[in-house]
Specification:
16% strand, 2 domains, UDP-galactose 4-epimerase, domain 1, 6-stranded parallel sheet, alpha/beta, single chain, binds NADP nicotinamide-adenine-dinucleotide phosphate, 12 strands
């Protein structure tokens, strides 16, 4: 199988390329400058040149604040690119994998959201990701939409996610205040990548999948567990989410799980293995 991966320097793309290498899957991964997904002609050229069996779109503007300030750019990269990719892949009978986010939900549920729950995005970022899902599924019947929760893991670009920022503070021994009412199911990007590769290679039924390590956890419990794995001396105090001024406000309870696929391993196992590189 030959895969064309877009977004190879990001958090998911970095992991996906590694998993492909480990599984012996041929993975062509042009950089952002080599293939800008907002340029449909470049997409067509790449598909003609590489003739992949599947395209994995892991590109995006994922900073919520940046999407609010520049909604048109967010639409172009997060949503319109998915339309271009769906139209270009369906023509050539190529499978499309469109990545998406748990932020499409409103965060009011006390249960993990499954593939059968109704999205209700409340940010520009989430709305553009939901549109990307619709474009993929409606324009190319050979599409997978894979939604992730908050990811942690190595990435090639210089950005830093929530968990990586916490690791830096925990290693430095800085005191932390963390919300104990914000729920998620943080997932190792390598576990997510392994699952997405399996979905594609095993030719699972096309459609929507939630991909997450097992178990919902509060940010406080998650960071306290991480501190233990890192032998950190940081004092960690529990706080409430409303004490932090996120603009726009982020939905509060965003755990997801899959009703369609067997659960991935529990998050503490994945976190312990990931944190070993920092010890
Ligand atoms: N990270 C998370 O916690 C998380 C959680 C839920 C869902 N997701 C979803 O997972 C997917 C991947 O996210 P990520 O965390 O890997 O993002 P990321 O680390 O920000 O990486 C985004 C990638 O997209 C590339 N890119 C941006 N604009 C592009 C364009 N116009 N043309 C081509 N490439 C472009 C970037 O290249 P450069 O770096 O070279 O600019 C980078 O390789 C997204 O769909 C996101 O919504 C992520």
């Amino acid at each position: 199988m030959k895969i064309l991966l877009l977004g190879n320097r990001g958090q998911f793309g970095t992991a996906f390329e590694k998993i492909c290498r480990m599984r012996g899957i041929e993975c062509i991964a042009p950089s952002h400058s080599e293939l800008d997904v907002t340029q449909p002609q470049k997409i067509s050229l790449a598909l003609s040149k590489e003739a992949p069996d599947a395209v994995v779109n892991s590109t995006g503007i994922i900073d919520i604040g940046e999407c609010e300030s520049c909604p048109l750019d967010a639409y172009k990269v997060n949503a319109q690119a998915s339309l271009y990719l769906a139209e270009a892949t369906v023509e050539k009978k190529i499978t499309l994998v469109q990545t998406s986010t748990h932020l499409v939900f409103d965060g009011k549920s006390h249960q993990p959201y499954t593939e059968y729950d109704l999205p209700s995005p409340n940010t520009v970022y989430a709305a553009t990701k939901l549109i990307s899902e619709h474009y993929a599924i409606t324009r190319n019947p050979k599409s997978y939409v894979v939604r992730f929760p908050t990811l942690f893991g190595h990435r090639r670009n210089e950005k830093s996610g929530f968990v990586e920022k916490m690791i830096t503070k925990l290693i430095a021994g800085d005191p932390l205040r963390i919300a104990d009412d914000r729920m998620d199911c943080p997932t190792w990007s390598e576990d997510a990548a392994r699952e997405v590769a399996e979905i594609v290679v095993s030719r699972a039924n096309f459609g929507l999948y939630h991909v997450a390590n097992r178990g919902a956890v509060s940010y406080f419990d998650f960071i306290a567990t991480l501190a233990k794995f890192l032998n950190s001396q940081s004092g960690i105090e529990a706080a409430k989410d409303k004490e932090f001024t996120a603009r726009p406000p982020k939905p509060l309870r965003l755990a997801i799980s899959s009703d369609k696929r067997p659960a991935l391993r529990p998050w503490p196992e994945a976190l312990q293995e990931y944190s070993e590189v920092y010890r």
